[in-house]
Design brief:
heterodimer, A: alpha+beta, Gyrase A, domain 2, Alpha-Beta Plaits, B: alpha/beta, 6-stranded mixed sheet, 27% helix, globular
């Protein structure tokens, strides 16, 4: 039967697993602390924190209300970091292309990854100023589309992520049809490499859009996932490796 | 044995001892520390020590039930061509980043062989570590850590011999018509659902497993709200209890006269030593202490 015991080691659980946390044998002597004194100290320590949390929640509620009113007045709902609708591969690429166009000197696309569950675009640069400029441009162009993570002060990486379906929602396994991708790539006269359950093709950025549009036009029911990364040297900004991962040979 | 079940910011505890007449409840109740953040590293230490001091207990063996909002759920459809381990690993790689993998551990449970579905439960590592630290501090033993409704299901099997039915449902009523359901058939879990009801609609927030059986349950529920007192068709028996929120609807449905609905509360079955059982609708949250009775026939 089905028994949940979160102490069990990660992985697939089988009946009979029953791990425990036990320190009983460590010492026979028990010296319990006085919890009331400690709790008082803890309340004192956290009271100022609670004050700020209350203020934050209040302002957040006001801001959320404002957004709801704003979006309900408009014809379309602006996409935002809290948006849960999944991006299509073509929508994702359109965003990627626009961000790519906003780049300044010495800023490079590090990687762009797309799945129906989460997608991300990362830029890198040795110049933090250049990354800041790009971040500001993207923010003003896309407003609150996506969200920025990464440490711009000490880092050198600007990351945008979309997590359209939080993991609490059921995740359907994504199967990529190898043959669909192969047909399209070969039809375009491109060389491709098949290894480690993935098809990779080296192409300029313009052709990536073409490939994705062709996939999209087939209206197949299978979702795809892919990643785009520069070929070897980071300076080779015109050639990108487009990799489709798949699980089955069918 | 001291069973502690977290429901939102409150912690329900039930202490029992074995006796020749079966488990004997010595004390039960509720504590909450609304002024303390649960993110405080020593939170669980204080919680457990407070309960021990309140009950004036010698160090018992513990079980703990986390509120289901503390964990995340996901589903994996397994495939005959691949090992389930490989598939879960691949899926996590696809859907999460390294930070998530470092922060959560995932336990996967097979629902039914026919459906090839795995229910994944993602637990923050910090929770387990905090509880581990709490045990370390008091030299205690934590026998099991379970999750909300799954603990209640273990309780239903132990207290009410639910396994004798070909199918049964565990129904956790929540605040603002938020429900959680577990559907069990032939002693195998078939579906887990978290839903939100309103007057005209039903939104399944999370559904893992067979959707059809869940739909039949909500048809039964609609019929009840339309005035029917016919037995529920969705399962042979429906066990119901209250999570957070008022127990008005719980009382209404339990006293409706529907044959196959039963209140799930350990106090309705277990013997108590010198303590009043109180209002069984108001303290039915104790259903989530069920993991403490794993493998015990009451």
């Amino acid at each position: 039967m089905f028994d949940v015991n979160l102490i069990n080691p990660p992985g697939i659980q089988i009946q009979g697993d029953n791990h425990v946390i036990s320190y009983r044998d460590n010492t026979p002597k028990r010296d319990l602390l006085n919890p009331s004194e400690q709790i008082s100290a803890l309340i004192k320590r956290t009271s100022s924190k609670w004050k700020w949390i209350r203020y934050s929640v209040f302002f957040f509620a006001i801001a959320t209300l404002g957004i709801i009113i704003y979006t309900s007045l408009g014809d379309t709902v602006k996409s935002g970091s809290s948006e849960r609708a999944p991006l299509s591969e073509v929508q994702f690429f359109t965003i990627l292309n626009s961000m790519y166009e906003l780049r300044t000197n010495n800023v490079y696309l590090e990687i762009a990854e797309y799945t129906t569950i989460s997608s991300s675009i990362a830029f890198v640069s040795e110049s933090q100023d250049m990354l800041n400029i790009l971040a500001h441009r993207i923010e003003s162009e896309f407003h609150h589309t996506g969200w920025i993570s990464g440490d711009l002060v000490t880092g050198g990486r600007l990351l945008y992520q979309w997590v359209p379906a939080l993991i609490s929602k059921p995740i359907q396994t994504v199967y990529v049809s190898k043959n669909i991708i192969l047909d399209i790539v070969k039809d375009m006269g491109l060389e491709c490499l098949i290894e480690n359950n993935a098809i990779s093709v080296v192409v300029p950025m313009e052709l990536i859009e073409d490939i994705l549009e062709r996939i999209d036009s087939l209206n197949h029911t299978l979702s795809i996932s892919f990643r785009i990364a520069p070929v070897e040297e980071i300076d080779a900004i015109h050639q990108y490796k487009l990799v489709f991962e798949y699980l089955t040979d069918k | 044995m001291l069973a502690i079940a977290q429901i939102s910011d409150s912690f329900y505890y039930l202490h029992w001892i074995p006796s020749d007449r079966g488990p004997l409840v010595t004390q039960f109740g509720e504590v909450s520390f609304s002024n303390i953040s649960q993110k405080e590293p020593d939170y669980y230490s204080y919680l457990i020590q407070s309960i021990l001091q309140k009950l004036q207990l010698e160090l018992p063996v513990f079980t703990f039930t986390l509120d289901s909002s503390e964990v995340l759920f996901s589903q994996t459809n397994t495939h005959p061509e691949f090992s389930s381990e490989e598939l879960v690993h691949w899926q996590l790689k696809q859907s999460t980043d390294q930070q998530f993998l470092d922060s959560y551990r995932v336990l996967s449970y097979s629902l039914t062989d026919q459906e090839n579905i795995l229910l994944n439960i993602h637990i923050p590592n910090t929770k387990i570590q905090s509880i581990d630290q709490a045990m370390k501090k008091i030299y205690g033993e934590m026998r099991s850590i379970c999750v909300g409704i799954f603990s209640a299901e273990i309780g239903a099997r132990s207290w009410m011999n639910a396994g004798k039915y070909g199918s049964y449902i565990i129904w956790r009523m929540g605040k603002y018509n938020s429900d959680q359901l577990l559907y069990v058939k032939n002693n195998e879990l078939v579906a887990y659902c978290h839903s939100k009801r309103s007057i005209n609609s039903l939104k399944k927030m999370t559904l893992i497993g067979d959707e059809k059986v869940v739909d039949v349950f909500f048809e039964d529920l609609n019929n009840f709200h339309s005035g029917s007192t016919d037995p529920f068709k969705s399962a042979e028996m429906v066990y119901v209890y209250q999570g957070e929120g008022k127990s008005t609807e719980l009382k209404k449905i339990c006293e409706s006269g529907i044959d196959n609905i039963r209140l799930l509360n350990p106090l309705s079955v277990l013997k108590c030593e010198e303590v009043s059982k109180g209002n069984l609708y108001l303290n039915s949250q104790l259903a989530e202490t069920g993991v403490s009775f794993r493998g015990i026939d009451v």
